[in-house]
Amino acid sequence: ASVMRRPHTVIEVEEATALGAAILGGLAAGVYADSDTAVGAMRYDRRDIVPDPVDADQYDMIYRGVYQRLYPAVAPLSHAIDDIRSHAG
Known about the structure:
With 89 residues, the protein is mainly alpha-helical. The chain folds into two domains: 7-51, no CATH class; 52-89, no CATH class. Helices cover 63% and strands 11% of the residues. The protein has helices at 16-28, 35-41, 53-88; strands at 8-12, 45-49.
């Protein structure tokens, strides 16, 4: 939440993949009119996470100071690896 500066809702369910499949199956079968209705019909605990402004500022500093500078430095190496893989057969 802090990285994106947006609140997030996390569902507390052991089999999230199965829940997602059930939602999609219900939509495909026409049981639910739309995804909001399907999600609302499911039973699970949820936890809301709100962003922490101090953490968000730290993440922004790390992103600007490290990751934005890291990509241009690593990109040529990533392209070289792709070239090697494409010629390896």
